[in-house]
Each structure stands twice: as C-alpha cells, then as structure tokens.
Amino acid sequence: MKSRRTFVLIDLSAYRENLLYLMNRVSPAKLMAVVKADGYGHGAVELAKVAQETGVESLAVAFLEEGIQLREAGIEIPILVFNYVDLSLVPLARKNRLTLTLYSPAQLDELSRLALNILPGFQLVVDTGMRRLGQEWRESIQLYERAIEKGISVEGAYSHFATADERDSPLVSRQQELFAKFIEEAARVSGVKLLNHISNSAGVLTQKHDERDFVRAGISIYGLQPSVDVDTNLRPILQWKTCVSFVKKIYPGYGVSYGQTFVAEREMIVATIPVGYADGYSRKLSNKGCVIIAGRRCPVIGRVCMDQFVVDVTHLEDSPVIGDEVVIIGRQLEERITAEELAEWSGTINYEITCAISHRVPRIYSKGETI
Fold first, then answer.
1. Which of 36, 222, 277, 351 is catalytic?
2. Cβ pair 12, 223 in contact under 8 A
3. Fold topology of 238-366
4. How far apart are CA 364 and CA 108, in angstroms?
5. What is the assigned CATH class of domain 12-222?
6. In sequence order, what are the beta bridge partners of 101?
7. Where are the domains of the chain?
8. Which residues of the chain have pLDDT under 70?
9. Catalytic residue among 2, 248, 249, 258, which?
10. Is 288 an active-site residue?
11. Residue 36 is among the residues annotated as catalytic for this protein
12. Rounded CA separation 336/297 (Å)
C-alpha cells in the first residue's frame, strides 16, 4: 500500500546495464555482486534474480540469514557469506549451499568439533591492511595448512582494499603485493591455486584484474559512487518519491518543528512532507536537506521528525497542493538530488543513505525508468 504516496522506485533495466558494463570492464575476471544489507537498501531478492538472469556467476552477503533468504527465493548461483556465523548454525550453510568465511585459528578449532560431512565450503579472508577479520598473510598460510590437515574444504581466498576509494593511495599496491604473496605461497603449499579476489567497487573501477578470478562490486552495481574520488559513470537505479501532505502560511516569529530551531523572519509558505527519520530520512538533514517540488529545490526548515518534516515553498511560482509529487532522491524536470548529496548534507556516505531507507517505504521495481 502507498497510503501516503511514498515509495522507492528501482529501475531494473538500469541495474542490468550496470552489471553488463562491469562484467565487460573486469573481464577476464568474473563479477561477484554484493547484495548484503538487503542490496544496500535496494532489495536483495529482486536484484539477485536480475543478477542471476544477467549471467553474474556469484553473489556475496554479510550474514547467514541473508544467504538463506536468497536460496529460499530461488537463487542458485554460488553465495559467499562474509561474516561470523554461530557454530550451531554452520550446518545450515551446507544445507543451503552457502560458502562461509574462514578467518582465525580459534574459529578453525571450533569448526573441528563438527563432523566434516555437515561443514560447508570456505573461503579464507587475508588481512592485508583492513584490520577487520582475518590474519596477516603468513599467519593465513598457517591457517590454510591447518584447515587442509583437518580436511576442511577451502575453495578460495580474498582480501579487501582499505583505501581504493582514495586517489593515489600507496596502501592499495601494498595490499595487492601482500595478497599476491599469500596466493603464491598457498599454491605452493597445496598444489592448488585458490579462487581469489580483492577488489571492492572502488578497486573494480581503478585497478587491473588480470591476476584475479573475481571482483566484488557493491555500491557501483547500484550506480552510486564509491567515493568523491571515484566516479562510476554508471546509472543510479533508485529514486525516492513522496508527496505534499499539507500547505500553510506562517508569519515572522513563527517557529517550526521540535525545538523551534527555525524561526521565520518573513511571511512564508511551507509544505509538510509525510516522511521522517523512521523512514530513513535522517534527522541530521534538519535545516540542511532539500527536496524537489515543481522542478525546484525546496529547503528543509526545522527539525526532521519521526514521520514528517517541513520545507519552504515560498519561492515556487504556484503554491503546491496536497498530493503534489515530491522527489527526495532522483530527478524531476531539470532538477536532481543524488544520494551523494544527501550524504554530504548528513555528514555520512551514500552507502548509509540507501541502506537506511526503512522497510516502511515500499520498493517498486520497474523497467525503463530514468533518474
């Protein structure tokens, strides 16, 4: 239902174009589409289906539940789970044909308590500079050797760039070098070259991939920029729209919203928008954000509430009426607001903007819509 005419529109045609562009760009490496966090807020199931239909050969998620959700939706291609999984639930990974991540001796000791026939396959994560999961490359070799001795199936290995989204960062080449050392030594130890990948979206767009089997693209497949230093040249696939719910005139001295952080200095016409921080429109956008009404930007005045906020529409040629379209992210006539702009106004990144759009906002999937 769209009782308040508020929804997110996802353009599946643009999404497919982005996938095909990236698949061609990184060849002969293959694309692993990252659809964790409900596809960065875009909807993991629908986008995983399109990825599978388009020829993407692998997906990645953050947690076990996300992988199981995709399997239950009919996704058949390989799925890698990046993060920790409670030991008691590890057998569910095998049942659902999910690949888990191996990252520490303590984890390996726990896994050794389970029968081999209920364990899934693993990929080993190597810490080359991110300092999250995994060990440095020499310790990772030791972990790999122990896993082999215990009969645990290690299908591949990966690392993660920490600064590929920064222009000319020397750490990127250092991480490449350390990961290459691990892959070379692992092949010597086992006689098998592990499937391997290190590039995230920023790396996909800035690095060469000749020696890697896969690249992992997340934010870029949705047409968003990994950072201000890396422009995707891809098409954003998400628009966020709502409507005007109320219009009124206010006068000098009138305060607006909680705390009265905005006080009118002149006679103004203001419009109420039926969206708030419970929908993912951040309270940090109070007195900072803008929306588009009648093809023009209208600034947020006062604090964003849980379910509503107020914008200044005094400058519009014609005052809006209840039900008029409001664009939060996307294009209307010649004006456009991007997720990157909302992120800048909020003091965050575009990843958080789309991930934060709550499930209270319906997702509508279409083909051929443009932003």
1. 36
2. no
3. Lyase, Ornithine Decarboxylase; Chain A, domain 1 (2.40.37)
4. 43
5. alpha beta
6. 123
7. 12-222, 238-366
8. 231-232, 369-371
9. 258
10. no
11. yes
12. 9
